[in-house]
Amino acid sequence: MGEPDRSVDRRPIAVREWQLFQRLAGWLARRGVAPNGISVAGMVCGVAAGGALAATSYLSGVEQRLTWVAAAVLIQLRLLANMLDGMVAIEGRRASPVGELYNEVPDRVSDAATLIGAGYAAGGEIALGYSAACVALLTAYVRAMGKAAGAGQEFCGPMAKQQRMFLVTVVAGYCGLTPHDWQPSWGLATAALGVIIVGGLWTAVRRLWRIALTLRKRTP
Questions:
Q1: Which end of the chain has fewer surrounding CB within 10 Å, N or C?
Q2: Containing structural domain, residue 167
Q3: DSSP string, 23-39
Q4: Residues 106-112: what's their mean pLDDT?
Q5: How many domains, the chain?
Q6: Residue 37: CATH number of its domain
Q7: How confident is the model at residue 10 (pLDDT cuts 50, 70, 90)?
Q8: What does the pLDDT look like over 170-182, one tens digit per residue?
Q9: What is the b/e burial string over 22-60, where b = at least 16 CB atoms within 10 angstroms of the residue's CB?
């Protein structure tokens, strides 16, 4: 059992048009890989990324560096799975009544796990991690409400899922690959979470505004 057709109202992702990913999606579809299974695999990567981020607080030296890098890789694998599940569903023309649940719920779990993990990370702030997770849920909620109200899904930023995860990936990669002396004492994870919170709140407001404009235009 797979997912519903996601060709309509999909998040705009430029790399979806790359031949590499189109061929990969086709290869997975021909081998009968379930789109819902890809969604779950992405969630596992997101949760693991959060665990790796949190683990950096308890490690040092090479082990800590490798854990930072692992977190960055896992975040990107999660985003890859998020993209491929829809592509495989369309390529394989597989539909399921619960496909939309598999499309949304794992994403919310992944967002929360990764951002909370960043709060527990070395140089992070626990309260900001939970706050960033709440803001991420808010932006997704506003998007879903726009769809429910008939305005379609609003994916605008500046701090949508891709931007949030890109920022955490950059921080994790930087902390894992640069000398400790190059890293500020106030904590890059804390700064990233602060940016995600402020940007996420602005994203929620901007989405609400655009949804309201769309609904007003449809009113006779």
A1: C
A2: 14-218
A3: HHHHHHHHTT--HHHHH
A4: 97
A5: 1
A6: 1.20.120.1760
A7: low
A8: 999 999 999 988 9
A9: eebbeebbeeebbbbbbbbbbbbbbbbbbbbbbbbbeee
Q: Of 171, 200, 202, nearest to 112 (Cα)?
A: 200
Is it the case that residue 63 has pLDDT exceeding 60? yes
What pTM value is reported for the model?
A: 0.91
> Distance between CA 29 and CA 117 in Å, rounded?
33
The C-alpha atoms of residue 44 and residue 150 are separated, in whole angstroms, by 32
Per DSSP, the three-state class of 220 is coil
The answer for residues whose C-beta is within 8 angstroms of residue 130's C-beta and 6 or more apart is 116, 119
Residue 205 maps to a domain: yes
5 lies in some domain: no
Q: Torsions phi, psi of 6, nearest 5? A: -105, 15
pLDDT over threshold 60, residue 4: no
